[in-house]
Every structure is written in C-alpha cells, then in structure tokens.
Amino acid sequence: MGIAELSILLLVGIVVLLAAGVPLGLASGFLGVCVAYWKLGERGFFILGQRMYDLTIEHALLAVPLFIFMAMLLERSNIAKDMYDSLNIWLSRTRGGIAIVTAVMAIIMAAMSGIIGGEVVLLGLIALPQMLRLGYNQNLAVGTICASGSLGTMIPPSIVLIIYGVVTDTSIHALFRAAILPGLMLGGMYIVYIMVRTRLNPSLAPLPENDTEVTWGEKFAALKGLLPPVVLVTCILGSIYGGITGITEAAAIGCLGTLLLIVIRGEFTRKLFLEALQRTLRSTGTILWVTFGATCLAGAYSIAGGPVFVANSILGLELPNMGVILMMMLIFLFLGALMDWVGIVLLTMPVFLPIVAGMTASEMGLIGGLEPNHLKVWFGILFCMNMQVSFLSPPFGPAAFYLKSVAPPHIQLTDIFKGFLPFICIQLIGLIVMLAFPEITSVFLD
Fold first, then answer.
1. What residues does each domain of the chain span?
2. Could you tell me the CA-to-CA distances from 124 to 45, 101, 120, 157, 170 in Å, in that order?
C-alpha cells in the first residue's frame, strides 16, 4: 500500500470512527498504533511511547491544568456574577446593553483563564436568563454568549496558544503578545455588531421598562465588583509580560490569587474546592487522552512518510504561496467542524509548518511583511482564528453543547446553531483581516 492510499484510508477511518461515536483520542490512537505496527512491528510501539513521553514532560503544559482549575473556581464562586452586575449597572440603559455586558465580561474572563467551556456555561447561567427575561432576540442572545465565550481561544492566556507553542516549538510568550490585538479586535467586532444591529432593529433588544435612573454615585460604587477580576488579570498577564515569571508560574499565581479572593469573600467551602478539582481532572484527562491519541497518529503517519507526501501534494498544485495558506485555512475549517482542536494541532502542524517555515513574507506578498521568525507566530494566530470558527461550526460545535447544558428546555440545539451564523461571518472577516494585514500580530513583538 502506497502513502497516497494510506492517507485516504486514515482519513476515511477517522471519519467513520468519529461518526460511530468513538472518542477522538481512542480513534486516532488506534489508527496510529495500527500504522506503526504495520511499518515497524513492535519497535513502532516504543517510538510512539517516546513521542508521548517527550510531549508530556514539557514544563509549559503544567499551565493547562492550572488555568483550568482557576476557571473552575471562578465558575463556582460569585466573582463572575459580581462582575456582571457591576457592568450591568453601567450599561443596562444602553440599547443592547446586556449583550454588550456579556461580551465585555467574556473578554475579561478570557484574560483570566483562557478556558472556553467553563466560560460559555457561566455566561449561559448568568446572562442568558437576564436577556430572555428582558425580551432580547433569542438568536442574538445565544450567539453573543457562545461567540464571546469562545474568545478564550484567542485572548491570552489561551490554552490553545499554549498547546500550539509546545507542539510547534514556538515561543508561548511571543504567541501571547501577538494575540493581544487580534483577540481584542475580534471582541470589539462582536460589540460593534451588537450595537449596530440593535440600533437598526430595536425590537431585538428592548430597553428595561420602569427601571429607575442609576446615579453616578451608584455606578462608581458598583466598580468594586470589577476590582477582583482586574487584580487577577493584572497579576497573571503583568507577571508574564513584565518578564517576572513564565507561563506556568503565572498560572499558579492566578490559582492562588483566585483561592485567596474566594477565602476573603467568605465563599470558600470544601465542596467548592473538591468540585473544582474534580472538574479540572476530568477536563485535563480529556485533553491528555486526545493528545496521546493524536500524537500516536501523527507519529505513525510521519514514520510512513505522510508529511512529505502531503507537503509535496500541496506544493505540486503550483499555487502562489498565499494560495497555499488559504488552502490550509480551508482544511482547518473543515477539520474544525469534525474534531477537537487538540487533535488538529497535533495532526496538521507536522505537515503544514515545514511548508510555512520555507516561506518568507516577501514571497507571500503580504502587506507590511513579517520577519521570518514571526511567520510561525502569525500562523499560530491564524490557527486560533480558525478554531474560533470551529467552536461554533455545526455539526459538532462544542460551544452549542456547552450552552445547551444550561439553557432552558425550549431552546434546542438547532436554535442555538441558528444564532451562530452572524458571528461565524464576523469570525471569518477577522480571519481575512489577519491574512491581509499580518503586521497586526507583530505590533507587540520585539
């Protein structure tokens, strides 16, 4: 069997197994082990085991469970609720104000922990009932919650960026700096869309009736609810960008700071702590299983010569370099609708990055250009933009399932996916902007 036939067989195999309900980690791991044994016999098992070991001893990966634990603590405390109430006092009398509050809150929460699932669930518990009670359009409400809740993919400290940096041997610090402006830009685009659409069609976001006017004194008094999140964000990002600590140490600071705030606020209980630990272990375990399985498949496919075959096939089309990048973006979008982002990183980057690394900014004709050592960083930001879309893409967009778990019974999955369409369009516009103006990612790079 040639490498072309093997590639088709693996693609069909992974799709069939996923369609049959086999978890991605087990499906990709099974296929990887089969290929490794077919090519190398028992020696293949040892090679795959070494690849998994080398990946899991990366120090930066320790930040993943720490940030997850921090997110779980925030989800179970009232810190996020108080932040929502504070923002709501300032914007409740603004057309579409509750949706804007939701987006702003999502941006702040993304800068605290970078966890997507917990953020969507938390916003669904806090913001969705409020928007539905006030008569907000259901599609606007669910779209705002899920799109904004997925900003943890882009805004540092994003776990997606951490995994990408570990797998591709790219500076995580540089990735975080490069993602600041694109992440805020995307969040800003959501807010502008909400403001414009609700003014063009006020029935989508009715203003609260019979609400008393909030005085400036009450508004400033409400700012105390924003103090804990601002302190956490400052400690985490300030320690990273200030060169005081690494990513992992900053994650530990965030966990300790969150625990301290919960204790000071009198909300700490043994049940809260244990539930946060249990959820952290489940989430981390899921990521690790997907990592192991995808590493097996990527390693076995590399042994079989797959990356060289795919690279030659893409380059053999004789597309311009930007055309090659666009093809990669389409592959990301296709895979993102079918599988988890961890698997996509591990399966595609060994193939795509050597191609990208061989390009220069001048060859691609990019406006403004990039330094060659910034290409991997730029490509990582493009990947994260694609994963933003994947969190909303049917049929397996995870944000829809996260929200469905806490949404009222009358809101069906099909209703949730309908609300995603305008926000997917915004995400694609953001992706086009990043392709056309790559220098956006180098604003905060040295």
1. 9-14+23-442
2. 44, 13, 6, 22, 34
